[in-house]
Specification:
Aspartate Aminotransferase, domain 1, Aspartate Aminotransferase, domain 2, five-stranded mixed β-sheet, 16 strands, binds pyridoxal-5'-phosphate
């Protein structure tokens, strides 16, 4: 048979509302054309973000019921940290401890629980446990990715400001996410995105690559050039985003991660991962990079995480959960050494982990839950294991490619190929035949028109959201003027994707009539796309008027 074998099915159904174009127009006006403010309950398909929008599995829903809502050291705290150790540090399924099963099976053996869960000591990795976590805190549950970034950036900013008053720093990445850029700018530093733009929008003959070309890789040459030009003392951290969301969700190869880590070692700069989509990235490595084809997702994850000095994580993506996040750094590693203060005899004067913990407690709650409910912690732990399931990942990534190929075959110009791991991106410069300038924010016009006509919401991640007009000439070169069709995890069928393909095809054929947008309030606000007010204006009004006269 020439059809794939089904690998999952749903037990829960939600009906889609019937909404008219006129009703959507009223809602767009009432919400000042801010797509984040458009009511989700009036949409046919919502592809704004894959973040926290996952349809959880039955195993996760059952784990949710086992949530322990105690204020201090709830069971989920131990389970979550050890889930991370299982997947990110233990070298694959064969070494998993899976202490979540002690909770699932309602273990009553206190001696066993003390030995395997409550009083376990861990040190030296990304997740200290027991006394080591109290003495040298290095892993922090924080309810979502941007909050983890904000905690990290605030502490780094304070330390640097004290050591080098008035100095401006640069933080490079293969592609910072918009909130990461926002957090870096708010700490007074400059974010830079060093990826291979020259290959990003290349389209292969027939629309298909034989192997994924890892377009999300860091441009290592540019990275080293930046460090040597600016001076190593001006680059306090290097980021790597896996997969590279801003760069069209493209995968990052293990080779690139290894090379980035080597540069970090050479210049003694901590390497921080942004790992919202760690599992999808491991999938791409398994399927496309030599030497990884026989390794499991967890085995690949362990190698991947061995290269970082710390990470920020939104667990709302590859945690297969609706809420969650994490901040961690390697015990006594480079980040700890660079940002802690030491006495002359080498003893610790101020531990950076303690500063991070103070910030965590004052903003999000104590370290046992960090802003998450006990049930969310349990659902996330179960979800992290679900994300290691090859069949699930294979189904998911192939859905993205199906949508991308659907656009390509429909003749829509600008679709980024191959598809990312969590969605499909269209280059708006190509879509509009290079006819719309950066000041038109036509990509945002496209997004809003897709809502108005067809009830489909996507997210603009280009000139408007990435603040093209507010950037330096070098930073402008690093903007990808794209919109993203994010695919929610475990939620959509082929039917949904076919509807989207048909809608975008129709819109493409009428692209001349997609309006441009102007910002009428909030132009200079940080992360303006979350709150600015917009207004549409017609494309080429002069020509249109002339035509009307004829
Ligand atoms: C790469 C990346 N980093 C960070 C974030 C921020 O995470 P959160 O939405 O959990 O705050 C996101 C998503 O929103 C993301 O895609």
């Amino acid at each position: 048979m020439n059809v794939p074998t089904p690998r999952s099915f749903s037990y829960v159904k939600r009906n889609v509302p019937e909404v008219t174009v006129e009703q959507r127009e009223r809602a767009l006006k009432a919400t000042h054309y801010n797509e984040f403010a458009f009511p989700a309950g009036m949409l046919t398909i919502d592809m704004l973000s894959d973040s926290g929008t996952t349809a959880m599995t039955d195993v996760q829903w059952s784990a949710l019921f086992l949530g322990d809502e105690s204020y201090g050291r709830n069971k989920g705290y131990y389970v979550l940290l050890d889930t991370f150790r299982d997947i990110f540090e233990r070298g694959g399924e064969k070494n998993w401890k899976k202490i979540i099963d002690l909770v699932r099976t309602d273990c009553k053996d206190i001696e066993k629980l003390m030995k395997e869960m409550y009083l376990c000591e861990y040190s030296g990795g990304l997740f200290n446990g027991g006394d080591a976590q109290l003495e040298r805190p290095n892993s922090f549950i924080i309810q979502q990715g941007r909050a983890a970034e904000a905690v990290l950036m605030e502490i780094v900013k304070n330390i640097l400001a004290k050591r080098y008053p008035g100095k401006v720093f640069t933080i490079p990445s293969n592609g910072h996410f918009d909130t990461t850029e926002g957090n870096i700018k708010q700490m007074g530093s400059i974010p830079r995105n060093l990826f291979h733009k020259e290959i990003l929008f290349e389209v292969p003959e027939g629309g298909k690559y034989e192997k994924n070309p890892f377009k999300g890789d860091m441009d290592i040459k540019k990275l080293e050039q930046l460090i040597t030009t600016l001076g190593v003392e001006n680059v306090p951290l290097i980021f790597t985003t896996l997969t590279n969301n801003t760069v069209c969700g493209q995968a990052v190869s293990m080779k690139s991660i290894r090379e980035t880590a080597k540069i970090c070692e050479k210049y003694d700069i901590p390497l921080i991962f942004d790992v919202a989509r760690w599992a999808e990235n491991c999938y791409f490595i398994k399927m496309n990079e030599e030497g990884y084809e026989n390794k499991s997702i967890a085995e690949i994850a362990t190698e991947m995480f061995s290269y970082c000095d710390g990470f920020c994580m939104s667990a709302k993506k590859d945690g297969h959960a609706n809420m969650g996040g994490m901040l961690a750094f390697r015990d006594k590693g480079r980040f700890w050494r660079k940002f802690s203060e030491f006495n002359e005899d080498g003893s610790v004067k101020t531990d950076v982990g303690v500063l991070l913990k103070v910030k965590q407690i004052s903003c999000y709650g104590n370290d046992s839950y960090g802003g998450m409910s006990g049930r969310d912690i349990m659902a996330l732990s179960a979800g992290l294991y679900e994300s290691c399931n090859f069949n699930y990942l294979d189904e998911r990534v192939k859905q993205c490619e199906y949508l991308a190929q659907g656009f390509y075959k429909a003749g829509i110009k600008g679709v980024v190929l191959p598809a990312g791991g969590h969605g499909v991106y269209i280059n708006m410069d190509t879509f509009f035949d290079g006819k719309r300038g950066h000041e038109t924010f036509a990509g945002e016009g496209f997004s809003l028109e897709l809502i108005r006509r067809y009830g489909i919401r996507v997210s603009e991640l280009g000139d408007y959201s990435m603040e093209y007009d507010l950037k330096t000439p070098e930073q402008k070169e690093e903007v990808c003027n794209v919109v993203r069709f994010a695919i929610n995890r475990s939620m959509y069928s082929k039917e949904h994707l076919d509807y989207v393909i048909a809608a975008v095809k129709a819109l493409y054929e009428d692209r001349e009539n997609i309006p441009n947008m102007k910002i009428i309030w909030g132009h200079n606000l940080p992360m303006r796309h979350f709150h600015a007010f917009l207004e549409p204006y017609p494309n080429k009004p002069e020509e249109k008027k002339d035509e009307d006269k004829k």
